[in-house]
Amino acid sequence: MNSRQQKTLDAIFSNPVQSGIRWSDILSLFKGLKAVVTEGRGSRVRVFLNGLKADFHRPHPEPTTDKGAVRSVREFLTRAGVGP
After folding, report:
1. C-alpha atoms less than 13 angstroms from C-alpha of 33 in its C-beta half-sphere
2. Is the pLDDT assigned to residue 79 strictly greater than 90?
3. Is residue 84 part of a domain?
4. Is residue 21 part of a domain?
5. What pTM was estimated for this model as a whole?
6. Which residue of 13, 19, 20, 25 is 20 to 30 Å from 62, comparing CA positions?
7. Measured distance CA(77)–CA(54) in Å, rounded
8. How many domains, the chain?
9. Contacts of 54 by beta carbon, 8 Å cutoff, 6+ apart
10. 58 is in which domain, residue-wise?
11. What H or E segment, with its residue span, contains residue 25?
């Protein structure tokens, strides 16, 4: 994991929950964690990490996530055994 991915991970786990994290940075973090990322229908993105699967919706029209999406990513990473 590179330093930019580490900053994204720290932002995801910061309190209070941040909004405005770029979706492309979250995808880069998943890839840095060796997750398998596949495209689903429409704006769906499937992520497989440490034996767990999650479906996320790519934010649009803005390239940044809202607080709810960041919470979902945080919960998924926690269940997958990833922390700050």
Report:
1. 27
2. yes
3. no
4. yes
5. 0.90
6. 13
7. 10
8. 1
9. 46, 47, 72, 76
10. 3-79
11. helix 23-32
